[in-house]
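Lab notebook page, bench 4
Experiment: in silico fold of construct C2
Operator: M.H.
Input chain length: 318 residues
Purpose: comparison with the prior construct
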Amino acid sequence: MAGGNQTPVKEFILLGFSGIPRAHAFLFLVFFTIYLLSMIGNTTLITLIRLDSRLHSPMYYFLSHLSCLDVCNLSVTVPKILANLASQKSTISYKECMAQMFFLMTSTGTESILLAVMAYDRYAAICQPLHYNNLMSSQVYVSLAIFSWLGGILNSATHTALATNLSFCGANRIDHIFCDVPPLLKITCSDTYVNEMVIHIFSIFMAVGPFLLIVISYVYIVSAILRIRSNTSRRKAFSTCSSHVAVVIIHFGMANVNYNRPGADYSSEVNILVSTLYCIITPMLNPLIYSFRNKDVKNALGKVLGLQRKAFTSPKKQ
């Protein structure tokens, strides 16, 4: 935790909203609303995919994992933010900070790999339709999901292990709203060269690599779609990819800005805004993007609501 004779830091003070105490009530309402909408959206999506047999396919299997990651992401950050806003005491223990960072980076790292896996699924469905059942058999897509999770866990475990070796020389004031690697590196008195190098190295495997695989997949996908003669079939093929493309742009764009930039070049307000967009707003948008642009999901929701109405009205008929 700390090196030499340094007194170990037992808790950190999160300064993200300390400069605007009068806005705490409003911010509490905003974050609570975001959290509630996000949890409802993601848990509803997971439930629909589990209940409706029409959604028992590799694409929706991966989508359910994406929603699980979003639930984890939100549950790791937002409840602590709400508790600090309500108590006017923005503190987090050292162990809580490390745990928060570990689970946060697990969910975001796993999501990067999972989005690449979902791009491969779209490639197999559109470019290799006759071999799709073999390319994406149950054994294959379950293994790909497990691989995504293991990659995210390895990424977060490495960064967290390195963070536990940092010394803070009594500095415990983090200019952020939750624990993450960049804010911790700004207050440590240890040499951060290894930490920063590991961030850039792992970004190749967790961000650049998956993003390149997605781009290559979509080069083949677009090429295959453009060869389709029917306009209706072409639009249908594009519609199955549009939601995924939107999520990819948001996720990798925010991840790049959040982790691959020198923190000194940005004010604390910009750092907080970028991290909030990446770790809190994005999980709220994902189920909305997939729901509004997906007929299968909307049909499944309508079926569930229809069954509920039937259940309520049947006693009256008797």
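Observations: The longest helix spans residues 94-127. Confidence is low (pLDDT under 50) at residues 1-5, 308-318.
Next step: discuss at group meeting.
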